[in-house]
Predict the structure.
Amino acid sequence: MTVVSGGVTGVPTATRKYSYAKVLLGLAALLVLISALRIITGADDLDSSGTLRATLVAAVPIGLAGLGGLWSERAGVVNIGLEGMMILGTFGAGYFGYFYGPWQGVVGAIALGAAGGLLHAVATVSFGVDHIVSGVAINIIALGAVQYLAALAFTGVAGGGATQSPTIPSLPSITIDAFSDPLGDLEQKNWFVVSDLAALLRALVTNLSLLTIICLLLFVLTWWLLWKTSFGLRLRSCGESPAAAESLGINVIRYKFVAVVISGGFAGLAGGFLALVASSTFRDGQTGGRGYIGLAAMIFGNWRPGGLLAGAGLFGYTDTLRLRGGGETIHGLLLLVAVGIVLYGIWQYRQTRQLASLMGALLGVVVAIWYFSTDSIPEDLTGMTPYLTTLLVLALFSQRLRMPAADGKPYRKGSAG
């Protein structure tokens, strides 16, 4: 952090290594690789419009949970309670969505998630409770509270019960027929790259929920607020050096409270998305650990919205392949994983990290042997795919990560003096 008499002028962040042009080039290269993989393996569902649309639905709640973690940790508060706040959000969406309407369900999900964030802020910021202990407690409390409230609210209601709500009215969705139908024709031709690009574009213009668009815009809004405004600069300074921020007149306690409550609101919206868009009903156990995967996506993204969105897309994609294609489609993905790990090993070699390069090359060879020696992946293993992906990605990219300097550290008002 750079401090001058007028205030905080900068918070240290990782230097951007890649321009936007290189990022777009990388995405184009990934599209070419997946297209080639589709042709080689014959697994047409690898990047069909249905798969990509389902990936978007699977990735958004993970990304929103990670976005909640990003707000909290940029202010210096670790939020392990995202899972519990998501659980509160699922019930808020189910209750308010069924009895009052789908948009009221969105508001209810955000409100209950924010209430969980407020509880976490009071415990950690006001009373100095260990952040991990508070987060775990919120997860446990939320699970029990929602089970009790669901039984109270939906028992005896037609189509509902102690563990689920009746069907919630749908939110508006958008389909642009002028583009959807021609793109569908191109997708069916199975042309190299062209059909894959058509499938991607068709997924974005066919049956796209309005809430999905709003959620994606929240990533842009977060980037703008935290990196392009004085409010964001002050908030991030609280996560880097709260004592220095306080010495410059910043109300650190207030900023931490605001960040953690917003964090809970994002997590609640993530749970609401599951109930309103992904399934159109509230169910007990609906989150399935996505709050924890959202934290992993945030770490993968190096505490930045763009990287977080990429991580959420990766985890959502593997989860979608597991559900749609099963063992055969996941088996086809192994070849891409093998190539990716080998390329990672080459990159590590260029960075003069011989041990990491050797480990990457060996792991890539092992995955390639696995692909060529089998025809399918056991169903029990496919269920673990998103979690294995989480562990693999974090293991490979952990060396380049930089968390906020004061993340998780206790803070007391007046410590600057």
Observations:
- Residues 1-16 have pLDDT under 50 and may be disordered.
- The first strand starts at residue 2 and ends at 4.
- Residues 49-308 form a domain with the ABC transporter involved in vitamin B12 uptake, BtuC fold (CATH 1.10.3470).
